Amino acid sequence: MQIFIDSTGNSDFASVRQESLQPYFLANSSQKINFGFTDSTYWLKIALKNHSLVDSWVLEIDYPLLDSIELYMWQHGRYVKKNSGDTIQFHRNNAFFHHAFNFNLPIPSSGEVYDVFVKVQTKGGMVLPVKLYSQQEFVKKATYENYLLGAYLGAVVIIGLYNFFLFLSIRDRSYLYYLFYVFTFGLLQASLTGISHQTLWEKFPYFANKTPVFFVPLSLFAALLFSQRFLFLKQRAVHLRFGFRLAIFCALLLSALAFYIDYSILVRCNTYFTIVVCLYLLYAAYHCWREGFLPAKYYMLAWGVLLLFLILHRLRLLGVVPHNLFTNHGIRVGSMIEMALLSLALGYRINLLRSQKEQMQYEIQQEKTLSVLHAELRAFTEREKIWKDLHDHLNGDLVEVNYGMQKLLQSSMGENPSLLYLQVRLEQVIDLLRSRLQTVDNQQELEEDFLEGIQLFLIQRYSSHTQERKLLLDVDDRLADVLQSHFTWEEKKQLYAIVKEVSTNDLKYGYGSSNWEFSFEEFELSLSMNSMSSYQPGQKPGLGANTIRERAEDLGAHLTSSLQVNRFHLHLQISLAPKQ
C-alpha cells in the first residue's frame, strides 16, 4: 500500500493517476495507519494480485468516523467509483450491513495486478486501518464483532435499567444521574463504533457525523452531575463546587456548539476537556476520601481505569500510539469496568448511608429513652419529697391523735365500734407513711451500697413485723465487688424485687426464724432462704410465687424451691461467667 498526502485537498482521481504524481505515492513501510488530526487529503494506492481461487473480496476500513471515502477500482474495462463515509446515508455506504466501512472487490484469479485507489477526507482523526478479506472471512469476522458489540451495549442497557429500578425503589437522585450518565455514555460508544449510524439515524448522516462531538461533552455533563451528588460536595468539599459549576457550564456549551462549530476544532477541544474533567473528578474523589468518605475509593478506581483507556484512545487519534486491538477496543473494556465499579460504589454508599441513618435513629431513640428516664426520675424524686414532707408534717399530729383516741377509748364506757374503727384506720395511715418513707430510704441505701441496702431492708422488714420473727443473715463479703462489677442497675433492681417478694411471702406464711444466705462460688452468686412455714404441700402456689419465678427468668437465674411439712426452702443461682 502506497500513500500520497495532498495538503491542498484539490486533487481528484484523474490528477493522481497522472505519471507525474506517481513518485509522490510513498510505500507505507512502517505500517503506520494513524496520522492524527489533519486537514490534508489522503490517497491510498493498493496493488492487488489474486493467486487464490476466490474471486470475491472485501476491503474494510475499520474506523467509522471518517467523513468521506471514495474508492476507485478497475471493473468492466473502466474505473468504477464507490462512495462511503459518515456524511452520507448508511444504506449507501457499505456492501455489507456492517458498522465498519466495506467495499466489494471482484478480483479475478488471473494473476494480473489491479490498482485500487482510495481517497479519504475527514475533520477528525485520520485513522486508516485498511484490511482485505475474502467474503467468507469478512462475514465470520463481522458476526463475531457484532456479538461483542451487542454484548457490550446490552450490558450498558442492563446496567441502566438496573439503576433505574433502584431509583424507583430508593428515590435517591444519585441513581437517576448515574442512569443519565450510562445512557449518554452508551450513545457515545454507539457513535464511536458506527452502531448508531447503522441503526439509529442511518437516514440522518449530518446528525450521525456530529454525534461523537455532541455526546462527549454531554456524557461529561452527566458525570459531573452524578459526581456532585455522589461525593456530597456541599458537605465535604465546598471549595470544589466552583470548579464543578465551571466544568458543567463548559460541557453544556460544547454540546450546544456541536452543530455550529467546525468538527475538527470541537474534536480537539473535547479531547483535552475530557482529560481535564477526569483528572478533576479524581482529585475531588481523593479529597473526599481523605475526609473520611469511604465510597470515594471505589469512585477513584472507576474513573482511574476509564481515564487510562480514554488517554490511550485520544493518543491513538493524535497518532501518538498505534492502532491495534487494545487501543481500539480498550475504551469499551475500561468503560464496563468503570460502570461496574461505580455501581459497586453506589451500593456501598447507600449501605453506608443506611447504616448511618440507623445509627442516628438508634441514638435519637436512646436520647428519647434517657429523656423519659430522667423525667421519671424527676417525678419520682418529687413524689419522694412530697412523702417526706407529709411524714414530717402529719406523722406527729397523727400519733397525737392516735394517742388521744386510745385515751378516749379507755375512758369511755364499754367498747365503741366507731372509735375502734377510727383507731385502726389511723394506725394503718401511720404505718403506710412509715413504710413509704422506709422505701425511700431503702432506695437511697441501695444506690449507695446495694449489698448493705439489701441487708438493712431485710433487718427492718423482719424487726418491724407484728409477729415475733428471728432473722439469721449470712453474707459473703466478696459479693459487694461482684455486684458492683457484674450487675447493672436494672439487674440489681430485679434482684431486690425478688428479695422483697420472698420476704413478703415469708412474713405472710412463715413463723419462727428465717435463715438467709448470700454466697459467691466459682462465678456463681447464690441466694438461699430457709424458714418454718404454715403453707402446706399440695396447696396451689399464689401470685407471689409466680411473680418470683418470672423475675428470676428475667434475670437469667435458676430458681428451685421445695415445700415440706412446716418447712420451706428456696435457692436462686445466677451465673456470672458471661459477664467476664
Rounded average pLDDT: 80
* Main sheet: strands, sense, barrel: 6 strands, antiparallel
Annotation, overall tally of beta strands: 16
Per the principal axes of the C-alpha atoms, what is the gross shape?
A: rod-shaped
Helix content: 55-70%
Low-confidence stretches: none
CA-to-CA gap between the ends? 85 Å
Beta fraction: 15-25%
**Helix/strand/pairing category:** alpha+beta
Count of helix runs: 15
Give Rg in angstroms: 47 Å
Strand order of the largest sheet: 2-1-4-9-6-7
What are the defining features of this structure?
single chain, 580 residues, alpha+beta, 16 strands, rod-shaped
Quick structural summary:
With 580 residues, this protein is of the alpha+beta class.
Account of the protein in words:
The protein has 580 residues and is an alpha+beta fold. The protein is built from 15 helices and 16 strands. The strands form four sheets. It has a six-stranded antiparallel β-sheet with strand order 2-1-4-9-6-7, with no helix packed on it. A five-stranded mixed β-sheet has the order 12-13-14-16-15. The radius of gyration is 47 Å and the shape is rod-shaped. It starts with a strand and ends in a 5-residue tail after the last strand.
What topology emerges from the helices and strands here?
Layout: E1 2-6, H1 13-16, E2 26-27, E3 34-37, E4 41-49, E5 56-61, E6 68-75, E7 78-84, E8 101-106, E9 113-121, E10 125-127, E11 130-134, H2 135-170, H3 173-193, H4 195-199, H5 205-230, H6 233-236, H7 241-257, H8 263-290, H9 296-318, H10 325-411, H11 417-448, H12 450-463, E12 470-475, H13 479-486, H14 489-509, E13 510-520, E14 524-533, H15 543-554, E15 558-564, E16 567-575
Parallel strand pairs: 12-13
Antiparallel strand pairs: 1-2, 1-4, 3-10, 4-9, 5-8, 5-11, 6-7, 6-9, 13-14, 14-16, 15-16
Helix pairs in contact: 2-3, 2-10, 3-5, 5-7, 5-8, 7-8, 8-9, 9-10, 10-11, 11-12, 12-14, 14-15
